[in-house]
Specification:
Blueprint lengths: L6 E12 L3 E9 L2 E8 H6 L7 E6 L10
Antiparallel strand pairs: 1-2, 1-4, 2-3
GO biological process, one term: molybdate ion transport
Organism: Pasteurella canis
Protein name: Molybdenum-pterin-binding protein
């Protein structure tokens, strides 16, 4: 599969919390960096995600907002 997103990080699933509708997955991409994402429960099941499995965090965004008080 080829995708247009340039920010692709390979890692291992270190946490998977399944809710009624969504799942929160955390992927360790190395060097102490963990990316966490909320995805649909259906997507998590389709991808057969489980702790210890290799996965990619793919980030495609047109903007990132940062704010301070």
């Amino acid at each position: 599969m080829k995708i247009s997103a340039r920010n692709q990080f390979k890692g291992k699933v270190v946490s998977l919390e399944k809710g009624a509708v969504n799942a929160v997955v955390s992927i360790d991409i190395g060097a102490g960096n963990i990316i966490t994402s909320t995805i649909s429960l259906a997507a998590a099941q389709e991808l057969q995600l489980e702790v210890g499995k290799e996965a990619y965090a793919v980030i495609k965004a047109t903007s990132v907002m940062v704010g301070v008080e």
